[in-house]
């Protein structure tokens, strides 16, 4: 791969755009999908920010929506700078190229460390926090040999398998995806590892604000980052109900290769990995199994961001559209229920123009009345 070309393609946000993007993604009820829809509809983050309160009101919000202020965004940028970090937009050269290709990719990532790590093809290695000695050793062996073959090891900075994978790839390149802010690593015992990582060949990434203490519900988002940044995911020891299996499901949904290390049927830590093998994951008993599986996917341009791939339009005047009528809003809302539906189904069912349907869904979303699902479907939020 030509690393230099991978890092020189893409857009470059101006300071003004970066502040507007940060304000928009930090506003209430604005997630990655909503962010994209807003910019696609209104042409820029600044224009979208002006419309968010009105859209929320039209969607039936019970209270005024909070829009992040310019002062708040500038303060977060200053905090990032003090920590030696920065915010990278989805279309910019330093944004992880594989991550930008998934649905619902974070529009902005806080990053700290060696940004060239993101240019290399990623291989995720995840597993049990209470890993066995043999599991830790094998995870380290995999990370070391795969890293030496030109891949960047991606994991979640957790105890056990994650820690072993990061430590074994400190010299070759590793990325730590975090559930909290970059200044709130978890677990605390890995603060030293994070410092080694970011001061060397590694990179830490997070979509959460600085100062954000990770909660249980934040870790699935972290898992999506790991899967999204990885060409393939290796699971080493995982119980049936574990975050590692969530990461594996994410990887499969993103079209990534899923690898699993077999283990004893008597060890609960291996029940999940053995289940992955039953479901068709590639068996791994040596680093060569992973390298051989990935080799056909390593085309020269695979990791180079394609122009226009992933990033929403910015500062492009939107096509003139008439706002939906009250009758159209009512028909769209009536078509929705708590059962997830495809947006194309809603368009066909109502016979309303796609642009109007998408705008009404935005209104409902900003009002907190809509749920967006990982597969692109939508449903009404429970009362």
UniProtKB/TrEMBL annotation:
Residues 87-294 form the Smf/DprA SLOG domain. Transmembrane segments: none annotated. It comes from Shinella yambaruensis. Residues 317-376 form the DprA winged helix domain. Belongs to the DprA/Smf family. Residues 305-327 are annotated as: Disordered. This is DNA processing protein DprA. Signal peptide: none annotated. InterPro entries: DprA, DprA_WH, DrpA_SLOG, WH-like_DNA-bd_sf. PANTHER family: PROTEIN SMF. It holds the Pfam family WHD_DprA.
């Amino acid at each position: 791969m030509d690393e230099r070309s991978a890092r020189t393609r893409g857009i470059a946000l101006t300071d003004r755009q970066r502040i507007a993007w940060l304000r928009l993604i930090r506003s209430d009820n604005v997630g990655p999908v909503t962010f994209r829809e807003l910019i696609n509809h209104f042409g820029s983050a600044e224009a979208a920010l002006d419309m968010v309160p009105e859209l929320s009101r039209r969607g039936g919000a019970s209270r005024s929506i909070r829009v992040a202020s310019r002062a708040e965004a500038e303060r977060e940028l200053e905090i990032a700078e003090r920590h030696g970090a920065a915010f990278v937009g989805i279309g910019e050269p330093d944004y992880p190229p594989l991550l930008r290709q998934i649905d619902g990719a974070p529009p902005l990532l806080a990053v700290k460390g060696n940004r060239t790590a993101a240019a290399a093809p990623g291989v995720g290695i995840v597993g049990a926090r209470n890993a066995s000695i043999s599991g830790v050793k094998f995870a380290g062996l995999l990370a070391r040999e795969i890293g030496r073959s030109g891949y960047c090891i991606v994991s979640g900075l957790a105890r056990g398998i994650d820690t072993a994978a990061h430590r074994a790839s400190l010299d070759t390149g590793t990325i730590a995806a975090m559930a909290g802010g970059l200044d709130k690593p978890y677990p605390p015992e890995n603060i030293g590892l994070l410092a080694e990582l970011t001061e060397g060949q590694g990179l830490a990434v997070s979509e959460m604000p600085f100062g954000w203490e990770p909660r249980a519900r934040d870790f699935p988002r972290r898992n999506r980052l790991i899967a999204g940044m990885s060409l393939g995911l290796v699971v080493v020891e995982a119980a049936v109900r574990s975050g590692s299996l969530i990461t594996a499901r994410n990887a499969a949904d993103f079209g990534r290769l899923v690898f699993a290390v077999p283990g004893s049927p008597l060890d609960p830590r291996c029940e999940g990995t053995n289940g992955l093998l039953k479901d068709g994951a590639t068996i791994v008993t040596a680093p060569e199994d992973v390298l051989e599986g990935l080799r056909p996917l390593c085309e020269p341009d695979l990791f180079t961001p394609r122009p226009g791939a992933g990033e929403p339009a910015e500062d492009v005047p939107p096509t003139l559209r008439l706002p939906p009528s009250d009758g159209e809003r009512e028909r769209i809302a009536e078509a929705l229920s708590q059962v997830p539906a495809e947006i194309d189904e809603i368009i066909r069912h109502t016979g309303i123009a796609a642009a109007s349907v998408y705008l009404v869904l935005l209104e409902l979303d900003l009002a907190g009345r809509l749920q967006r699902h990982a597969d692109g479907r939508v449903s009404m939020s429970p009362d």
